[in-house]
Design a protein that fits this description.
Layout lengths: L7 E3 H8 L16 E3 L9 E5 L5 E6 L5 E2 L6 E2 L4 E4 L17 H5 L9 E2 L4 E8 L4 E7 L6 H5 L5 E9 L8 E8 L7 H11 L8 E4 L9 H11 L10 E5 L4 E4 L2 H9 L5
Parallel strand pairs: 12-13
Antiparallel strand pairs: 1-2, 2-5, 3-4, 3-9, 5-7, 6-9, 7-8, 9-10, 11-12, 13-14, 14-15
Length: about 270
C-alpha cells in the first residue's frame, strides 16, 4: 500500500508541508526523491516485505507515519542495510544546536526512541501490498534461505503463519512450532494442513506443534514477537489459543490438551 498521494509523498512535498527537511540524502524512489509515509485513513498500511530470489517471504516491517523509505522496489540488500528510518523532529529552538541530538543522547547506552529499521538478512527488496489487510510490506529475497513460513502460507484456509523453535524438556535442540492465522471466517483444518505440510516441506522442517490464532501479534518488532511466542511454548496452561501436536503414528495433528502436554514432558509420548 505504498500509494503516492494516499499513504506516501515525495520528500520535497513532506518538507513543504512541515517547513523542515526530513533527513539526509538516501535511496531515491520517485523522480530522484525518497518517499515519506504520511498520516492516512482507511485500511491501507504501508510495509516493507523481504523475499528471497524465489519469492519466499523472509521478513516484513510495517512503516509508521513520517517514516522515510530508504529502499526501492526490487533493490538487492545485505544484512544491516537500512530499510526505513523515523527522523528526529526538530525542536524549533533558536539555539544554534536546536533540533540536533545532544552529546549525552548520542553516547547514552539506552534504546533509542525511534530506531531505524535495519535488514537482518541479505537478499533483494520487493514492495508488496496485502489487499486483504490493506497493508504494504518490504520483502527481502534471499538466495540461500528456505522460507518455511512462505510455504505454510499456501496451505488451504491459511492466511498467515509465523514459524519458530521451542525447547522441549528432555530433548536436544528445538522443536518446530507454527503460529497459524486462518483466513477470515474459516476454522483451522488439521487434516488439510498436514497434507499440505507433507507435500511442501521436508520432514525436518515440518512443525511439530501448531498454535492457531485469530490474528498475528503485531506489537513490537519481528524478533520480539517470536521471543514471546517461544517463551509461551506449547503449554495449554499458558496459551489461550488452540494447540495441536503432530502425531506421526496417527499421521494427524491432534489437539494438545494438558494430559498430552504432561505425557510429552514426562517422555511417555516420544517426539
Amino acid at each position: 500500500d505504498v500509494v503516492l498521494g494516499e499513504t506516501v509523498r515525495t520528500e520535497s512535498e513532506a518538507v513543504a508541508a512541515t517547513g523542515r527537511r526530513r533527513g539526509a540524502a538516501g535511496t531515491s524512489a520517485i523522480g530522484g526523491q525518497a518517499l515519506v509515509v504520511i498520516e492516512h485513513k482507511g485500511e491501507m498500511h504501508p510495509r516493507i516485505v523481504i523475499e528471497d530470489t524465489e519469492g519466499k517471504i523472509l521478513d516484513f516491517h510495517y512503516l509508521p507515519a513520517k517514516a522515510r523509505i530508504e529502499v526501492q522496489q526490487g533493490q538487492e540488500i545485505l544484512a544491516g542495510h537500512m530499510l526505513a528510518r523515523q527522523p528526529r523532529e526538530a525542536t524549533g529552538s533558536s539555539d544554534i544546536v536546536g533540533g540536533l541530538p545532544r552529546v549525552t543522547e548520542i553516547f547514552e547506552a539506552r534504546k533509542p526512541k525511534d530506531p531505524s529499521v535495519l535488514a537482518e538478512i541479505s537478499g533483494t527488496i520487493e514492495l508488496r501490498s496485502d489487499k486483504r489487510r490493506g497493508k504494504m510490506t518490504i520483502i527481502i529475497k534471499s538466495e540461500s534461505s528456505m522460507e518455511v513460513e512462505h510455504l505454510l502460507n499456501g496451505a488451504p484456509g491459511v492466511h498467515e503463519t509465523a514459524v519458530y523453535g521451542i525447547e522441549v524438556p528432555g530433548t536436544e535442540g528445538r522443536a518446530g512450532m507454527a503460529l497459524v492465522v486462518p483466513v477470515d471466517g474459516r476454522d483451522f483444518d488439521p487434516a488439510s494442513f498436514l497434507s499440505h505440510v507433507e507435500r511442501a516441506l521436508p520432514t525436518y522442517a515440518r512443525p511439530l506443534f501448531v498454535r492457531v490464532s485469530a490474528a498475528m501479534d503485531t506489537t513490537g518488532n519481528f524478533k520480539n514477537r517470536k521471543t514471546r511466542l517461544q517463551a509461551e511454548g506449547f503449554d495449554p496452561a499458558r496459551v489461550a489459543d488452540p494447540l495441536w501436536f503432530r502425531d506421526d503414528a496417527a499421521r494427524a495433528y491432534v489437539p494438545l490438551d494438558p494430559a498430552l502436554h504432561t505425557a510429552i514432558l514426562s517422555g511417555e509420548r516420544r517426539l
